[in-house]
Specification:
Blueprint lengths: L1 H18 L2 H22 L3 E4 L2 E4 H31 L2 H6 L5 H31 L6 H25 L9 H15 L12 H9 L1 H14 L5 H21 L7
Helix pairs in contact: 1-5, 2-3, 2-5, 3-5, 3-6, 3-7, 3-9, 5-6, 6-9, 6-10, 9-10
């Protein structure tokens, strides 16, 4: 019970700190919507041919931007914020308090999940209101939520893991974006990938979790074939990220 109370209190603290940085909070919520408007405006209306299913470009991008929102909230934000707090000595001071380190890290993950859920709801509502995009219901919605939860945990773990290779806070945005931005293009989030896409792109995409997460989110959102293999691969990356974070995560600033 005491651990749950500490966790809840820490989640509240992390949430307050998040909203007290309005610039960061604004762009966290604005980026998915901004990219949704940009891609649908630049590329126009067209039909995306998925396995056994054809959807409008607006519906496709609503689902894709929902996946991007989860990655941004759980991977990018955690990696960047934790690195800055490490360099400022916040993590070191936190480690010296009676609060267990697992509570601090768990609160970060829970807050990232909450932000991700809110982002997905806002993105879906925005797409529904302005682009008449379809919204998942029933079994499709259940599968969508499963992939969302697994993906949020995985990208949070990977966000903690990558802090081990970030030397300082100034390098954090560059390294984090360099590690995720190419995969967003290669995995069909920013640009739909068809069967005529180069084989090497599809081969690289299948190695990393972004493509499998995007496929699961699209399937859960749109109603195409849902593969539990995608869930398993994303979860495996989450376990790997957790093990790396446990082994190499540092509470003290790099010297």
């Amino acid at each position: 019970m005491r651990g749950a109370i500490l966790l809840f209190s820490q989640v509240r603290y992390v949430n307050k700190a998040f909203w007290r940085n309005p610039a960061s909070a604004f762009f966290t919520f604005a980026f998915p919507l901004m990219f949704l408007v940009i891609f649908t405006s630049l590329l126009g209306k067209f039909t995306v041919h998925l396995t056994g299913h054809d959807v409008t470009s607006a519906t496709y991008y609503v689902a894709a931007m929902a996946a991007f929102a989860v990655i941004s909230a759980c991977y990018t934000n955690i990696a960047t914020t934790v690195t800055f707090q490490r360099d400022l000595g916040v993590l070191k001071r936190t480690r010296g308090t009676p609060m267990p380190g697992s509570v601090y890290l768990g609160a970060r993950v829970l807050h990232a999940l909450l932000v991700a859920v809110v982002l997905v709801i806002i993105t879906a509502a925005f797409g529904r209101c302005f682009y008449h995009a379809d919204i998942p219901t029933g079994l499709t919605l259940a599968r969508f939520l499963v992939m969302l939860a697994v993906g949020a945990g995985t990208f949070s773990a990977l966000g903690f893991a990558i802090t081990a290779v970030i030397p300082n806070a100034d390098a954090s945005p560059a390294i984090v974006n360099a590690s995720i931005l190419p995969l967003l293009f290669l995995s069909g989030i920013f640009i739909p990938l068809g069967t005529n896409s180069p084989a090497w792109i599809r081969w690289i995409a299948r190695i990393f979790p972004v493509q499998h997460f995007a496929s699961g989110m699209l399937a859960g959102f749109i109603g195409t074939h849902f593969s539990w293999t995608d869930v398993a691969i994303v979860a495996a990356w989450g376990v790997a990220g957790l093990l790396l974070a446990v082994r190499f995560f540092s509470w003290e600033p790099r010297t």
